[in-house]
Amino acid sequence: MILELDCGNTLIKWRLLCGESATARSGGVVESDQALIDAVHEQGVRLRGCRLVSVRSDEETMQLISLLERVFAVECQVAQSAVLLAGVRNGYEEYQRLGLDRWLAVVGAYQVSHKAALVIDLGTAITSDFVSADGQHLGGFICPGVPLMRTQLRTHTRRTRYDNDEAAEALENLVPGRATAEAVERGCWLMLRGFVSGQAAMAVELLGGEFDVFLTGGDAPLVMDVIPGARVVPDLVFIGLAIACPID
């Protein structure tokens, strides 16, 4: 089995791949290093390799690697920034500063599409990236996702207070809100959808008429209808990770 990890600032996404087929046998999301160890232990499998991408600090990443190598007696490969990978050229002036999760998502999308692509990751933050038909990364954008927008409003606006049940009920439709929860939740959702629509329009200008759109991240299903034909690919980063860190 091969263990793949996408280590964010707060959560770790993991999955186990079966042999040569690269078929995911199991996976999940955990909140701590120890929870990851426990989750993998529960699978009762022997690991022959591990690869990971991390946006954590170097110290936190090395702590996790040391733990994995000690517990599972496996070597861990870590994705690194690159100027060129699998036909994609990094578009940042300082290529090392492009987030590794964004970089691998772009590489993964280009590997799947083999043509121009718009990649939008809708998580705690939202990122978008453009890659041309010849593999040139043209840059992208970063903005707050729905969780961040919601948290900022509920934290910094004293009268913006409501519970999670109210939040869920608020999204039953998108008419103007007549309660605080409705106004906030629907407003954030409309901003999310407006951003995605705007990125699609910009892609037409930058990439021409022939390009694929890839949506990934936890809120991707909320906007899949905004761009007809968009592909929702939850494991897009893992596709790029396998290219960056092949395991024989």
TrEMBL record:
Localization terms from the record: Cytoplasm
Entries under Gene3D superfamilies matching the protein: 3.30.420.40
Range of residues in the leader sequence: none
Residues at the active site: D101 (proton acceptor)
Cofactor(s) recorded in Swiss-Prot or TrEMBL: NH4(+); K(+)
Predominant subcellular localization, coarse grouping: cytoplasm
Chain sites annotated for binding substrate: Y92, G99, L100, D101, R102, T180
Binding of ATP, residues: D6, C7, G8, N9, T10, L11, I12, K13, T124
Gene Ontology BP terms: coenzyme A biosynthetic process
GO CC, alphabetical: cytoplasm
NCBIfam families in the cross-refs: baf (TIGR00671), PRK13322.1-2 (NF009857), PRK13322.1-4 (NF009859)
Family, as annotated: Belongs to the type III pantothenate kinase family.
UniProt-recorded name of the protein: Type III pantothenate kinase
Gene designation per UniProt: coaX
